[in-house]
């Protein structure tokens, strides 16, 4: 089983624990990729000296590299990164190549089912209309997913954020069993967004139960239905985002406080007040990792994601119900 927490400890100290699969660091200008696949440097700046630490109860943990994929594996999960340099090639092609490489590789691995993907790319909002880089990225991503026959209902939770470094940086988690996606009753499924948001819908689930312990929640923003709410007002966008997270976690049957939260903020949004307000809603003891980046819609100022603990009985009920449904 997988779990996550945030920590102020330094990376070498955290990597001393045998159950650690990934220490996720953040840097606006990441240096050379670390050789240890357990060390993942997300290309976004953060003022907080906080790392995200993913641990497993299914050790031993091993690691390796295949092509541009670095991975870390336990008995039940694989966590990895895939990094492509962006030297000005078409972003649709880069997205297609990155996803094709990842999906082809996953096909031959013991843990074939995507549980979570993070997407970071430079200049995400550059380009007008359907030529915007985020929209073209979504086209390449969807083409690769279709070719490997991943159906919409099996899409994992995701995040897509603009970075400064000239990279396409993917971080992923995969499991031996499929995750169980959960959609948000207040939001249209992203893979059903209407044409006006681009030629290809964004390919992700709002959240998923990934094992008996965790609900992984996608980057969540101030969108109701499919429409952005409160453009230009970060405080009201934050409140709307909280309502979305409440509706989603309630729908998934989760009651406890989140285990870890990240907040992605456009550079003009004040970091301190946002973190304070997030803590006021979800728990004063919580560490929130604030990150500076561009949200994929130009009218969105911030986005929040996280992992919520599942209570044992909820999971058992749901998987019993799911297997009964599958038998029908
Ligand atoms: C939204 O809800 C906001 O393209 O992978 C959130 C999470 C968003 C993931 C993605 C996009 C993605 O539509 C944007």
Automatic annotation (TrEMBL):
Chorismatase FkbO/Hyg5-like N-terminal domain segment(s): 52-174
InterPro entries named in the record: FkbO_Hyg5-like_N, RutC-like_sf
Annotated protein name in UniProt: Pteridine-dependent deoxygenase
Source species: Abyssibacter profundi
Source organism phylogeny: Bacteria, Pseudomonadati, Pseudomonadota, Gammaproteobacteria, Chromatiales
């Amino acid at each position: 089983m997988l779990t996550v927490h945030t920590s102020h400890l330094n990376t070498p100290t955290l990597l001393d624990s045998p159950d650690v699969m990934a220490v996720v660091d953040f840097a606006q200008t990441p240096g050379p990729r670390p050789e240890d696949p357990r060390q993942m440097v997300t290309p976004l700046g953060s003022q907080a000296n906080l790392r995200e630490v993913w641990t497993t109860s299914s050790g031993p943990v091993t690691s390796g590299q295949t092509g541009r994929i670095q991975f870390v594996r336990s008995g039940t999960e694989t966590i990895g990164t895939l990094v492509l340099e962006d030297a000005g090639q078409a972003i649709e092609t880069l997205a297609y190549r990155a996803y094709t490489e990842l999906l082809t590789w996953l096909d031959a691995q013991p843990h074939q089912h995507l549980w979570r993907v993070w997407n970071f790319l430079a200049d995400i909002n550059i380009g007008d209309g359907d030529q915007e880089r985020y929209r073209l990225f979504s086209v390449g991503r969807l083409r690769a997913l279709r070719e490997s026959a991943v159906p919409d209902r099996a899409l994992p939770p995701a995040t897509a954020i603009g970075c400064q470094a000239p990279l396409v940086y993917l971080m992923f988690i995969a499991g031996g069993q499929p995750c169980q996606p959960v959609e948000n009753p207040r939001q249209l499924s992203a893979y059903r967004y209407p044409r006006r948001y681009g030629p290809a819908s964004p390919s992700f689930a709002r959240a998923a139960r990934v094992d008996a312990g965790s609900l992984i929640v996608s980057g969540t923003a101030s969108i109701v239905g499919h429409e952005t709410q409160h453009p230009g007002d970060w405080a009201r966008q934050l409140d709307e985002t909280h309502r979305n997270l409440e509706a989603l976690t309630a729908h998934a049957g989760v009651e406890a406080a989140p285990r870890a939260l990240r907040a992605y903020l456009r550079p003009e949004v004040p970091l301190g007040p946002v973190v304070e307000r997030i803590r006021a809603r979800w728990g004063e003891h919580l560490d929130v990792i604030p990150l500076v980046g561009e949200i994929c819609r130009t009218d969105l100022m911030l986005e929040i994601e996280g992992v919520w603990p599942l209570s044992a009985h909820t999971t058992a009920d749901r998987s019993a119900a799911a297997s009964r449904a599958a038998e029908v």
